[in-house]
Amino acid sequence: MTSTRDIIKAKTAAIELTDVEINLALEEVEVAFKNYCNRYDIPDRARFLIANLAVDLLKSQHAGDGDGS
Length: 69
Fold this sequence. Notes:
The chain is built from three helices and no strands. The protein has helices at 4-11, 19-37, 47-61.
């Protein structure tokens, strides 16, 4: 089974990210998910949802980075 962190890294390969940035985005999304769903855990079935939310967050934070394209 692919980890959530591996999914994020694969989907953000074009962006230079540190492990700290990935971990912070993942933690932020996990907290938001738990609060929104009123849960203390994250079900395994939500793994891709969490990864996609983290990818969206990271891409929005790095929208101006890159070669200008």
